Structures are given as C-alpha cells and as structure tokens.
Amino acid sequence: MTERTLNVGLLGCGTVGAAVIRVLHEHADEIAQRAGCRLSVARVAVRDPARPRAVPLGPDAFTDDPLAVIDDPAIDIVCELIGGVEPARALILRAFAKGRSVVTANKELLANHGQELFEAADAAGQDLYFEASVAGGIPLIRPLKESLTGERIGRILGIVNGTTNYILTQMSEHGWSFEDALTEAQRLGYAEADPTADVEGFDAAAKCAILASIAFNTRVVAGDVYREGIAGVTALDIADAARMGYVVKLLAIAELEDGEVSARVHPAMIPVSHPLASVRDAFNAVFVEGPKVGQLMFYGRGAGGDPTASAVVGDLVTVARHRISGARGVGCTCTQDRPIRGMAGTRGQYYLNLHVEDRPGVLAEIAGHFGRNGVSIERVWQEGTADEATLVFITHRAREGDFQKTVQELRALTAVRAVTSVLRVEGEEP
Length: 430
Ligand SMILES: NC(=O)c1ccc[n+]([C@@H]2O[C@H](COP(=O)([O-])OP(=O)(O)OC[C@H]3O[C@@H](n4cnc5c(N)ncnc54)[C@H](OP(=O)(O)O)[C@@H]3O)[C@@H](O)[C@H]2O)c1
Known about the structure:
By secondary structure, the chain is an alpha/beta fold. The protein has 14 helices and 17 strands. It binds NADP nicotinamide-adenine-dinucleotide phosphate.
C-alpha cells in the first residue's frame, strides 16, 4: 500500500520556517507514523528566493510569490511563518478560501484579527492552529482549549516575553541598570535592534489577549490589554524588592472576576517563593489557576527556531490527522461576550516608596490618605536620615483606581518630597 503524503505550503523561511523544514525532515519517519501520512514541504514563499538557506530543500521549492504556494492545488496545509499583520492576514484568508487548513505562529495577527480568521476557517470548514503564537515551544493553547475544558480557570499569570525576562534577570543578579542590561541583551541577540515590541510590553500584550480569550471563552484583543513596559524599572526598585523578599518580573495577567475579564501586562514584584520567581533569563512560564485543578505551571523555551518549530510541527501533525480522518479540530472557543474590566477596576497589592519630611505627624497624615481611599496597609516601615525619611508601604489587596488616587494625593503633599517607586505586587496568597 502506498503511504499517503500531505503537502505543506510554507509562507516564510526565517528563524522558525527554516527550523520547521529541518524538524519535518529529521523526524520524518516518526511524524509519518504519528500523522498517518508523510508531511512534505512542497513549496516555500520568501522575500528573496535566491538567498542560500540551511534547509534540506532544492532551490526549485522557493518562490517570492505566496499566492503561487497557496493556489497550488497540490497544497493541503498552509503554514504561515512570515509574521506581522499584512500580508499574513490576507494570505491566511485566501488559504481558507482555497480549502486549505492553516497553521501559524503569528501572535500579532491572532490577537488583533482572531475573530475574522476563525470565521473564515469555519466558513471553509478548515482548521486554524496556532500553538506557537504564545510562549514558543511550550504547549499552552491546546492544554487550555482542550485538556482544561472541564475547569473554570480564574487566573493566568505568565512570563511570556523572554527578552524582558532576560533583562530583568540581569538587573536582579548583577545590579545592572535597565540600559546596561538591554545593551547586553542586544549584544547576545536576545533583543532586537529596535526593542520596542518587547520592552514596552506589546509582544506580551498580544499573548495575554490570546490567553485571556481562550481561558475565559470571550474575545479579548490586544487593545483591551492594559500595558506598561519595563523601561521605567530602576536598579533601586529591584534592590528594594530583593530586600523585602521579592523579584521584579514583567507579568501578563488575565483574570475572570464577577463575570468580567481583565487583562494586563506590567512589571510586578512577586515573592521569591512563587514558582514564577525562579524563571530566569529568556525562559517563559505560565501559571494557571482553577478551583479544581489548583495551580499549574507550564515552563520552557518561549522562543527560538527549534522550540517554536516543535510547536508548529505538532500543529501540522494534528491538522494532518484531521485531514486524513475527515474531522475538524476545536475551532473558536469564544462562546461568551464578557465585559472587559478597565485597569482602574482591577484589584491587587501595591508597593510604595516615599521620601518624606522627618517630622512628627507625617506618617499619620499619609496613612489618612490611604484610609480615606479605602486602601489598607499591610506593612509599613521607615528609615530615617538627618531631616528626611524613607517610608515604604505594602498594601492589602485594593482597587487600582483607589490606590492610584492615593498616590496622586500623596504627590501633592508638602511633606512628601518624592514618590520614588510604585510597583504592583502579585502572586501573594489572597
Ligand atoms: N523567532 C521566534 O523565536 C518566534 C517565536 C514564536 C513565534 N514566532 C513567530 O513566528 C513567525 C515567524 O518569525 P521568524 O522569527 O521566523 O521571522 P523571520 O526570521 O523574520 O522570517 C520571516 C520570513 O518571512 C519571509 N517573508 C517576509 N515577508 C514576506 C512576504 N511578503 N512574502 C513572502 N515571504 C515573506 C522572509 O523572507 P526572507 O527570508 O527572504 O527575508 C523570512 O523567510 C512570526 O509570526 C513570529 O512572531 C517567532
């Protein structure tokens, strides 16, 4: 009996695309056994087909015309690894219209146009798989969409950007400034020449939107995610956090509370005892909480050609199995229309460091502002110099809006010379 072959049309052959071709070649026999068919990369679209590439494919496979790949009747599955919104969006829509299933690693596209893509997949009766779009090689989308469908996930806390985690790790472990750690990250290839997408939290916000959409069965787009990057984190913040038993991480946080979804990305202090605190360098980890399953942590390499290719190839095998059996996988899981809770309505703990006049009554005056805004103080301590004192507060869980109003009022007090540091605190037991 001849073994069936399904043809993959690849769009993009960069870091991930080239690694996908190599994994499909190196693991061809295992993949054929698992998929029930051979997976062959038949055609590849790139910008520059003449460029030499370290992949086991002849030059005839390459074209600079993505439509020549998508429209080729021999292609069964289109694998989009170009990145960015256009032309990736239009190409995926075309692939569905032509009756191809699609595998992609494109977080930006999913986080902004997920609904449109799923509608097109449904209309065409095809699969859309995107495991590699969040946290590279770490299986996360399928566990959330399939393995955890019996659970009511309440919260996801994730370190989903390796560049910023590398920078914060260097700042913590070597006392470096943000600028020095960024320069080192760029020298080692962990950060792009233009690091904006990573450092300002755009990359993490797109991933947060995808995770929140799946975990809470409601459409959350990148623009719904509150976003603060790490450029404002100082060596002093990190040193203070360490002194108090915390580390600073850029967290993506998605929560479901009272039927409302909140999604945010910002630096936060987490206790050194929290499992996410030990996630160093460019590693990623996602912590998922549910009432029945308890706490789960998914940990591993969130980027890089081979880890990401592992996730992409897993999707290709899944889609191939469906084509062989005539089935379809799980489509869009956004069955609800939940309201998005704005940042001011979220709740958390806060760390605040103030330089104040060292005179009687100042602490009481400041505590009064906390109290009037309904923010209660969990811990406070004071370190004095000649005529100035440092006051450090950690609050109980409070509404973000109430805490920010308190900080605004404190800034206006003559007794407060400077608000030197404000950081959110996450990961404490509620
Ligand atoms: N890199 C990672 O670690 C990682 C991790 C997780 C997810 N992802 C996602 O995976 C996707 C690919 O990332 P990557 O790092 O592999 O990108 P990359 O190295 O920049 O590769 C992009 C590829 O797309 C091709 N390309 C660009 N525009 C094109 C066009 N208009 N028509 C045809 N081909 C075009 C390029 O061709 P040339 O080679 O001729 O320039 C290149 O081969 C992105 O969505 C990214 O977010 C990447």
